[in-house]
Structure formats: structure tokens, C-alpha cells
Amino acid sequence: MNRYQTIPKHLRYTITDFNRQFPDDAACLEHLKEQRFPGGIAHCEKCNQDRKHYRINGRPVYSCDHCGTQISPMAGTIFEHSSTSLRLWYYAMYLMASTRCGISAKQIQRETGVTYKTAWRMFRQIRSLLSESEMQLEGSAVEIDETYVGGKRKNRHGSRGMRGRDNDEKTPVFGMVERGGKGRVLAYVTPDAKAATLFPIIEEKILPNSIVYSDEYSTYDKLATPANGYDHRRIKHAQKIYVMGDVHTQTIEGFWSLVKNGIKGVYHNVGRHYLQTYLNEYSFRYNRRFDTQPMFLSFLQQVEKRDAVVRQTESVPEPF
Ligand SMILES: [Zn+2]
Q1: Is 234 strand, coil or helix?
Q2: Average pLDDT taken over every residue of the chain
Q3: What DSSP string runs through 261-276?
Q4: What distance in angstroms lies between residue 54's CA and the mean position of ligand 1's atoms?
Q5: Closest C-alpha to 276, from 94, 163, 128
Q6: 44 Cα: distance to centroid of ligand 1 (angstroms)
Q7: H-helix or E-strand containing 105?
Q8: Which residues of 275-308 are buried (b: 16+ CB within 10 A; e: fewer)?
Q9: Distance in angstroms (rounded) separating the CA atoms of residues 294 and 120
Q10: Quick one: three-class SS letters along 18-61?
């Protein structure tokens, strides 16, 4: 992977672009309204039909042109009940979309002056929009691999005194990436790397009769049985063979490096409890690296997800 690849011109979205498109809260609200209620047309509860809605001066709501009932484009989104300005939310999303490795709450705290707690919660909320749990892998070939992320020490069963210490042990993560095509990845925090844990995920996400590339880890033995219909091809890492023709797992390993370097460089460490949301963030960007629109616009399209709102009472970990 080339770290220094330049972004094609039509995919660039600079801070100048951001300031021009979103100069203030009103511009962000208007954008949100257009995305959720194009042309201001929305269902009015009272009229019980679709009506045109108009902005009410000085308030973040729109009003039915027939009966005056008000609707808020922020209702049901991560912005609802937030005392942070809408433009700051947009800016945080812009920052998150503009890097490959992520951005820490500390960084946005320094840049914008919001408290660390606020910054951390904003990022947590934004990450909650980026889950792709419904996604199905396509294509005829998929690489799979397991790895361990975070923690200060390797996950050793029965290690004394470390049980339940969220940040001290490495967390098992399982990943699958499409070979060719869109080259999309799915990555999951799992309780362990046993066959009983990984196979339901494999069978749910990888099409029957696909070619599946893995290393020689014994968990994957079962993939060879015809019941799955998979054409299983393995590379023998233990014998220091990493590529044999097209038999390798270097695509998924490249993704692991991106995640691990990112977490180490930007976040320093991520607790097990939150790791899935960081995986979602890395996967989301990775899965859109060939998109024909700027990443920031892909982020904005997620704000309609209504089920993503995270409780604001959640405790915030100490900054590093
Ligand atoms: Zn109405």
C-alpha cells in the first residue's frame, strides 16, 4: 500500500471546500434537512401527509406550510440533544474522514477548544454510524485471518492477576477481505479464535463455493470439508512461505497493519470494549477507498442512521 498516494482531484475535499460549503450552523442544518427531507418535503403528523416545510428563523426547526407543525432534522440523529454546535459535529466528521489513520479526541480538543469529554463522545457517536454489520462479502475469493490487537501483553490463558483487566490483554480480532472487485473488508472483535466462534461468521459472510485463502492455523482445518463448498487454499507461514502464486493473506495483513499502526500512533491504545467501533471506522474508510466521491460525503450520508445514538452517560476513558 502506498502511503503517499495522491488523492485524485475530484475526490479531494479540502478545508477550503469545507469552509465554503459549511460556513455556519445554518448551512449544516440546511444540508441535514435536504438529506433527510429533500426539497423540504416531509411527512407531517398532524396533516397526515407529505407537506412542504420551511425554516423558522433563529431556531433549528422547520415548519409545515399548511398547519405549522414543526420538525427537526436533528431528531433521532446523533446531533439531537447535543449542546455542541452542528458545525463542530460536521467538522469532527470532516477530520475523521480526511485521514487514513484516524484522529484522536485530543487533537480535536486542541483544535476547537471543546473539552476532552465532549470530543471523545463526539467521536464515539460518529464511529457508531460507521458499522457495516449488514454487509455481505461478494466476489469469488476471500482472504481470512485472525490477529490480536491492543493490550500491553499477549493474551495468555490463565495468566495470573490479569483477568478482567480490559486494557492489559490483547483482543482477538477476525477479518475477511474480498480479493479483487471492491476489495472490501469486514473485521470483528471475537471472544476467541476457535472454529466454533469463527465459522458462523465465515459462513454468514462468505458466499458458498468461494475460494478462501488462509494461513495454516488449525482453526481453519474444517474449511477443507466439502460441506462448506469452499475451495480452501493455505499458505504455510510456519515454513516462512508467505506468497505462492496467488495463495497469500497479504491483503488482510495489510489491513491489520493499517489498524494496528493507526491505533498505536493515534489512539495509543484502545480498550476491548471500544475496539469494535474503531475497527468499524478503519473498515468504513478502507471499503470506500475506490469510491467516486470524497470520503467526507460518505461520512455525511451515514448521519441518517437513527439507531446509532449512544448513551451520553457512558463514562469517558482518561486521555493518554
Ligand atoms: Zn401539517
Answers
A1: strand
A2: 85
A3: HHIIIIIS---HHHHH
A4: 11
A5: 128
A6: 5
A7: helix 105-112
A8: bbbbbbbbbbbbbbeeeeebbbebbbebbeeeeb
A9: 24
A10: HHHHCCCHHHHHHHHHHHHCHHHEEEECCCCEEEEEEECCCCCC
Q: What predicted TM-score, i.e. pTM, was given to this entire model? A: 0.85
40 CA to centre of ligand 1 in angstroms? 12
CA of 72 to the centre of ligand 1 (A): 14
Q: Convert 81-98 to b/e letters by CB count within 10 Å (16 or more is b).
A: ebebebbbbbbbbbbbbb
The CA 45 to ligand 1 mean position distance, Å, reads 7
Sign, CA torsion 132/133/136/142 = positive
Which band of pLDDT confidence, cut at 50, 70 and 90, is reported for residue 306?
low
Average pLDDT over residues 141-154: 83
Å from CA of 47 to ligand 1 middle: 4
Which residue's entry shows cell 446509532?
A: 308
Q: What is the pLDDT of residues 188-228, one digit of tens each?
A: 999 999 999 999 999 999 998 899 999 888 888 888 776 67
Q: How far apart are CA 191 and CA 153, in angstroms?
A: 17
pLDDT, residue 316, reads 64
Q: How close is the Cα of 86 to the center of ligand 1, in Å?
A: 26
CA 37 / ligand 1 centre spacing (Å):
14
296: its cell numbers:
467526507
At 35 the pLDDT is 93
Q: Give the C-alpha separation, 229 to 136, whole Å.
A: 17
For residue 90, report the distance from its CA to the centre of ligand 1, in Å.
30
